[in-house]
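Appendix B, Record 12. Input sequence as logged:
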Amino acid sequence: MESVDLHETTNANHVDHGWQKVSYPKRQRKTKPNADPNLPRPNGTLTNGSAGVFHSLEQQSDDRRRRIVEAQRAYAAAAIDADAKHKPKRSVIDDSDDDDGSDLDGLKPNGKPADEEKKAKPKKPKVTVVEAAAKIDPTDLSAYFAEWNGEQQEIQMQKFADYYGKAFQLVVAGQFPWLKLFRESTVAKLADIPLSHISDAVYKTSADWISQRSLEALGFFVLWSLDIILEDLAAQQAGAKGSKKGAQQTSLKSKVGIFVALAMVFQRKPDALISVLPKLRENSKYQGQDKLPIFAWTIVQASKGDLAVGLYSWAHLLLPVLSSKNCNPQSRDLILQLVEWILSVSKARSILVNNAVRKGERLVPPSSFEILMRATFPASSSRVKATERFEAIYPTVKEVALAGAHGSKAMRQVALQMFAFAIKAAGESMLLHLTTFCSLHPFPPALPAPFLYPLCSY
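Logged structural output:
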């Protein structure tokens, strides 16, 4: 139907009874040409109003992704169940549905390609202590020593331990369970842990270098090393009790390096142990029967360097543990093992008697000898299986405790001290080997000789 202007309508025939469509030119000009019904609109629908043309495709894609995720989860659950039962289990994925499962081919439960499983990081080889020790080159070690010249000796000692720590870094804790070894090994075996694997050339190179360090630097190193060992001990004990925190703190690395360095120091400079004994006795963190295996090991290593240092350390550090009310049979056995091993060394008696006094101090002071006498001669009702072992070592230890020039000022002081605790023990109705004091001549001038006759004839 054509549109006409408004002024022409009055002259038109009345065929349409006066009804005609009226349009306005301005609006006519604004009308857009007909759009192609096949072109998409900005919102993704066609101009003909077909908004759901992609709906079925999207729904199929969503269903397909959902089935893939469900299949992956089912596959992971099946794998876990198969590991628990130690039996292979068929995949729950429906291989018959090629369209839904085609994208799952070559996929692991975590969605990663299966061929990546073959590219897993290779496990580090388990290196034994023997293998790691064999790779240490004495020439290389000497070169490292030369690089440290000019630095503080305490820092040099830490680098010395760090060198051996790196040399044994591939030795995992399971290859050197030091706490288990210390607890289950005899004292004789402790003497060879872990230096038996170090070559003579490496040991000599290290020992020569250690001999040039000051006693103060060596004492610092001993305490520093023991602190590291005790921290590892605490972590292992916490892990054994089921503490997650303790288990996390337990290092997976072996401590063999620090034990190697520390053993070399003790064997080459045994006096380093004597220099720190006061701190070991006074500081509570070094006390406790759970730490006895560690200190038994240190005394054995020092004894290999100087037997007199070994007996001195035993009498001052371990023997006093016997007087503790909580001393258990395991601790008593370890204390006895250590002194038995020291006295079993070739020519031990002559070495110890000739060195009974060291730098003005006795290897076996009167206070320690009192503890030994009480353990050797208890009341008949207090005898235990270990009493016979104390009786066996008593004569030699007594000889060392009473060694010295008769009549000297030092011996008179020793006699007075021993007589005082002997009188105390006799008053407690203890069976004591008081004939010991009859071997002291002359008698202390402060005491009348007739007073000693009943004791000597006891």
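Residues 416 and 444 are 7 Å apart (CA to CA).
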